[in-house]
Every structure is written in structure tokens, then in C-alpha cells.
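Fold this sequence, please.
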Amino acid sequence: MDDLKNPGIQEQGDVAIKKRRKGIYILPNLFTLAALFGGFYAVVMAIDGRFDLAAVGVFCAMVLDSLDGRVARMTNTQSAFGEQMDSLSDMVSFGAAPALIAYVWALKGLGRWGWIAAFVYCACAALRLARFNVNTAVVDKRYFQGLPSPAAAALVAGFIWVANDLNRTGVSLAWPMFAVALYSGLTMVTNVPFYSFKDIQVKRSVPFVVIVLIAIGIAVINIDPPIVMFSVFVVYGLSGYIVYFWRKAKGIPTSVISTSKDEPDEMGLHK
């Protein structure tokens, strides 16, 4: 009887029930889970000694990771759960997986130095992802602050993929792998700007020549996927430093922080 006398209370109760029943969006999280499986698959293949498939697993995870956010935006299914899920998936696929693959393939032979390099890479990936989550609202969307973790993972996995394709063993390339792991890891936590490609609008019409160039790019990749893919990410992994020193030389601000923050603990991220 009280509910009938107070329809406002009844409406509030219905809204509360609807909120409690709200579930998880399936489509974007399927892509995230698939990316997570790619990282897990890469680790399993590395343990089995199939390093070519381990590298492919990392690259597949990278492609799937680039799709989940776009799918969520296109279908208007963004959620806080999806953001957290994506970060955890990235930590496995682009943090732990490349470090473990590199260690099993080559770094294990270096003893203490090997696991230190693997840990530095893994720790830097965690720091990179945490900083990304904290600084999302203040970083210029056109650039990443430091090398993004998928690109860092592509450098590590790509190096292994190319070496395996050339029939080179990890033992003979232990120190080069050490250098690649450290470079990739430490570059993730720098303030060097890397172009994010987020200002490219896929919904807009493009000239016909763009489609032709995409077709040519696919054909070039098929010539020798390991070398071509690794070369692309080497160029990207160096591009941030080129942009950084070019800005320094021109007297242009090098920071990608677009808005100042008041928290004193975050000041080190704005320099």
C-alpha cells in the first residue's frame, strides 16, 4: 500500500533493480579475452620450444588489442570493467609474455644478467600501463608518453621471430636480446613522444590512392612477414627519439602532457 501511495519510491526501486542487473558487454571483452589468449598461447609455445609460434601469438594479441577499444567506441559499449580488463590483458600479453619468451629463448644463458633484463622489461611494462591509466586525461591524444607496450612487445617478439626465421639460436644472440629487452623496457617509461595514430578517423572517406597503398603494404608484408614486421617496429621504436631531439633542436616543448595537474606526486610525469 505504501508503494502505491508513493510512486516515486516504486520508480526508484525499479531503477535500482535495473542497475543491479546490468551485466558486462560481450563484444569488446571477447576481443580482450582473445588478446589475453594470444599472450598465454605465446608463453605456452615458448615453453614447448616453438618460438616462431610464440612470436606470432604476441603479434596476434597486438592486433586484437588494437580492435577491442575501437569496437567498444563504435558500438558505444565502453565500460570501466572493460578498461580494467584491457589493462590486465596488456600486462600479460605485452609485459609478462615477452619477458618470459625472451628469457626462455636466450636470456637464460646469461644467468643473473638474463633474468635481470627480463624483469626490467616486465616491470617497465607494468609501470608504463599504470602511468597510462593515471595520465589518460592529461596526455595529448596524438602521442603516447613513452613507447606503448604492444610496440615494445613487438620489438622483443619480432627479434626472436626474425632470428628463428634465419635459423639463429638464442644462445648465439643472448647479448643482442639483452640489449633489445632493455631498450624496449626502458623506452616504455621515458617521456619520449610516440605518435599514437588516434587522430586518424576511420569513418571518414579517403582518397582512392590510400586503399591502393594499403594493398601494397599487405603485399610487402607477405614477402617476408618476420623481417618486414620487425623492421616496421624498429622504425617506430626509434621515431620517438627522432621527434624528441627534433623538437629539442627547434625549441618546441617535448612534453606530451597537454594539461597541468595539481597533485605534487605526479609532477615527475610532466617534465
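Residues 80-105 form the longest helix (26 residues). The domain at 13-270 is CATH 1.20.120.1760 (Four Helix Bundle (Hemerythrin (Met), subunit A)).
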